[in-house]
Amino acid sequence: MSAHGFRQASIAKLNEPGLGDKVHKATLHTTHGRDRLVESMPDWDSLRHRAREARLRALDHHDALLETFMRALKARGIGLSLAKTPTEACEIITDLVNATGKKVIKSKSMTSEEINLNHALEQAGAQVTETDLGELIVQLAEQAPSHVTAPAIHLSTEDIARIFRDKLGMQVPAWIDDPALVDDQTRNRLARDLSLTARKHLRERFLQADVGISGANFLVAETGTVVLLENEGNILLTTALPKRHIVLAGVDKLIETEKDLGVLLRLLPVSATAQRQSCYVSLLADAHPDMHVVLLDHGRSKLMADTQLRDVLTCIRCGACMNVCPVYRNVGGHAYGAAYPGPIGALLMPHLEGMDRFGDLPFASSLCGACTQACPVQIPLHDHLLTMRARIVQKGGPDSLRWPLRLASSAMHKASRMDRGTRLYPLVRKFAALHPTGKAWLESRTLPPPAKESFRRWWQRQHVDRPATDTSESWKKSAMTEKASAPEPVDSPDDLLPLFQQRMLELGPENTSEIQLFDAALVAEEYLRIRMEEHDPHTIAIQGETTEKREYTLGITRAEMLIADTGGVLVDMRDRSQGHPIMLAETHIVVARPSQIVPTVAHALVARSVKRKSGAWGDYQVLVTGPSRTADVEKVLVIPAHGPRKLVVVLCEEPVDLSSLRKPPEANRDAVDR
Ligand code: SF4
User: Fold this and answer.
1) Residue 647, number of CB atoms within 10 A of its CB
2) Low-confidence residues in the chain, pLDDT < 50
């Protein structure tokens, strides 16, 4: 986008029928959900603070962390390349793909959007399939994603139905041309059909792919772990099924320790998708026989050296700043013409691609500060936007803003001038459009009517005219109400089982999550055998057995840990071939003991480090939180996406022997009797 391209693009987007409504509806949905969760987390602010510290520490020690991470990968035989520019990164990945096969599946990666990877791969003759539903939709529509976590946020159910009809041959109802004819339930049913059509369309592609390309949410230096969060199950399949796995990530994704990861994993899903935890968190620290990590710089090292703005690189790409931004909500992501839209894009893009191209984006903000308040890693986004503007203005541009800004600065420096300015405002408002600068300004804005009372006068009434006791009394009252409604923290191990049950069952509406409690192992095993009788034995995958690359209807695994505050289970898959049968199964049964429940994911990660060091666990774990899901079509929740449609947790006081499940029950009883 050329300089000042945002203004023209945003005017066009403001005039696009229905766009603002679609983006508002989706962003408000996520923001309200996030706010509700934040209210139930008494340690939210302290988590944000700790996350910021962790991310800043990672920047401070970046070179050392990079070295540690590289050493860890080398020890496992994983390839690593450093790419300075998008062109270099595309060349490295294209060579890796060409050496393996043409069929490429990709999970969502904003870094790949940043370097325009799909285009480079397709030019080299590869067939690239996006596997995240939102990404697939925009790929079929030949558009770019318009949000970092919800790529198709700008499209309605009807828009997507037309795309699927034209590109996938899906039969769609005639009412899509007149949606006013139907109720919400009918539209939601179509959203569900669209998601299931995508599942069917992608299933064969997963099984036949030569190369899987993923991004990374975090790279843990101390353990060389690649961490990936998702809801659909497509990342698990992308990283497990193809022969070669390529990870593409910015060098800023490095964090120091698993402890830091524990903090970030509690913040990211809440901020990104209003969930306590994403459905699947893959922790990849295994010696995959054909894995390559490509780390991209693309201006990040230079930004790291900028003492004022370096914390822009602490961003964890949750998208919360976009969801609350009044500019983004009205114009959507495409107006920015950038891989990263919204407030973070306005800061990042000029550094990645240069001021000439994106120097107008820091002005695409009302500076209301909502982004700063929403940011889980406490980046002072609106302050930084102001800093960027100051730098741009100091360099001499944009001209049209120079004298209005001087005027505003002069007024704001003296109360009497500000007062006069306030009184003159109704006149300015009336005649602003007569001046060329005012006219241009008003093309995409309206000046609000003058307030009935000035802020100074209001302040005077509230804080000077009113007796001091009023304020303190009302403060005391509101503090007491706040205290009364504050949720109790989890502080006793006895609380954990009921909390785990409650949180786990919340994850699966319409009977898609289930818990079974048993005292005796024989009874639990009998229950599992009864569940197995509902399936063809050849379509059942049990952890520990050799499995093939095909579809299964039932997957049974152990869980090593259960997370009380999210209702999640940590499964030690050991190696990736164990992951796909379970992920392709229609139902996933997890077997564990109640004593394995821990309060939070942070506790589970500490235990994971110890167990891995002692050799008790393997190097590939997946944190599973509910059945697979998507909400990429107008935020309508659809279960399943690519993974199981049902998750059953079997809790038994005694250890259950999974290897005995294929044997007739009599054989086990005889063994016990003897
Ligand atoms: S800047 Fe903050 S709110 Fe915006 S995407 Fe990054 S982490 Fe999220």
Assistant:
1) 28
2) 1-3, 467-491, 671-674
* C-alpha span between 546 and 544 (Å, rounded): 7
Round the CA-based radius of gyration of the chain to a whole number and report it.
27
Give the burial class of 661: count Cβ atoms within 10 A of its Cβ; 0-12 exposed, 13-18 middle, 19 or more buried.
Answer: buried
Contact 86, 296 (CB under 8 A): yes
C-alpha 531/C-alpha 337 separation (Å) is 52
Nearest CA to ligand 1 atom 4: 321
Pick the residue whose CA is nearest to atom 8 on ligand 1.
318
What does 192-233 look like in DSSP terms, one character per residue? HHHHHHHHHHHHHHHHH-SEEEE--SEEETTTTEEEEEESSS
**Measured distance CA(658)–CA(650) in Å, rounded:** 12
CA angle (92 as vertex; 89, 96 as ends), nearest 5: 135
Which amino acid, residue 55?
A: R
Shortest-distance Cα residue to atom 3 of ligand 1: 375
DSSP code of residue 484:
H
pLDDT for position 464: 66
CA of 60 to the centre of ligand 1 (A): 20
Beta-bridged to residue 624, according to DSSP, are: 280, 569
Distance 254 CA to ligand 1 centre (A): 16
ipTM of the complex in this document: 0.99
Looking from the CA of residue 272, the nearest atom of ligand 1 is: 8
- The helix (run of H) or strand (run of E) holding residue 58 is helix 44-60
Closest atom of ligand 1 relative to the 371 alpha carbon: 3
Helix count and strand count (H, E) for the chain = 29, 19
Q: What was the pLDDT predicted at 548?
A: 80
Give the closest residue to 36 by CA, choosing from 485, 627, 569, 381.
Answer: 485
Q: 496-673 belongs to which CATH class?
A: alpha beta
Centre of ligand 1 to C-alpha 344, Å, is 6
- What is the predicted pLDDT for the residue at 488? 40
**356 CB neighbour count, 10 Å cutoff:** 9
Q: How many residues does the chain have?
A: 674
- For CATH 3.40.50.10420, the residue range(s) in the chain are 496-673
CA–CA separation, 319 vs 377, rounded Å?
12
| Per-residue model confidence (pLDDT) at position 469 | 41
Among 252, 268, 310, 315, the mutation site with the greatest number of ligand 1 atoms within 8 A of its Cβ is 315
CB 371 within 8 A of CB 324: yes
CA nearest neighbour of 115 among 297, 350, 252: 297
The dihedral through the CA atoms of 24, 28, 31, 35 has a sign that is positive
DSSP string across 89-129: HHHHHHHHHHTT-SEEEE---HHHHHTTHHHHHHHTT-EEE
